[in-house]
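cron nightly-structures :: item 1 of 1
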Amino acid sequence: MKTGRLGRTGLEVPIVGLGTGFIGIADANRAATEYDFMESWTAGWPASSRGASGRSSHMEFELGIATVHAAIEAGSTLIDTAPLYGSGNSESIIGEALRQRPDLAERCTVTTKVGQTAAGLDHSYDAVMRQVEESRRRLGIDVFDVLYIHDAMDVPIDEVMGRDRALGALRILQDTGVTRFVGTATNDPHTNARYIETGEFDAAVVPEALSLINQLAEDRILPAAVRHDVGLLIATPVERGLLATGPVDGINYLARNFSPACLDHVARIRDLCASHDVPLVAAALQWCTRHPQVAATIPGARVPAEARANANAGDVDIHEAFWTELAPLIRHFDADVDR
């Protein structure tokens, strides 16, 4: 697979990685109805919904392991996770997958986050240090290439950036060799932009801000990333599946309420893709990485087939004539109005 440079880190990563927020959840609509998944996991599922191991019955451990293996084997050797995902189960799945296949583990870059867990937000120094130790244990990783500050929305910036807060903890972890670089990963694009604009971060995970139908990143995120050479990983590049398949009746797009106008527009893009024999998902993923500051996309995969399909999309050869025809169809659908 082609690779991209992750900004000033200098890391070379595959242009399609693996997002693991829904890994091992077999049913797409089950994943969708739990897009309150943050709320569900934060509140804690009742004991009746958990197996004997305490893991959520919705995130199947063996299925998740198979998905990690499939992704790496197909070339998606960049894996993004967080303690929040599955109340730590995502990290545990990845850790076990890598322990089972050390041949695959040595090919991987695994990144995780701090500041947000199933217990809630905590960007204090002590919490970050504790969270990193727990992530190292679950993942079986001693040194991270990047640790991201997670979901610092509605938190005063001084409570995140202070020497005795999350960023200060990450700087100590840099000094002691636990992480090489630090990043921001915030679900709100405006908050993400604010942190990128500080110049303090080497990389950023950017959800909800860049896709064929979402251009929010053009305003502040991309200019700030260029200015400070911040490497970007684009999350939600296929808009929870809409830009992988086009409109499909009966699909819940994970808390997205796409307007009829938006769905019709995506159908037009899908038709253009078909006329060029380009898979829609390949166009959606590779379009993001055409910007020089975007190193990779990290679409989520629930099952091995999704992981392979995403990775294969990164290998599709797309001619410049297609991009020229696609350009007039790239537009923004405002989340408050059209979705």
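cron nightly-structures :: done
The first helix runs from residue 28 to 33.
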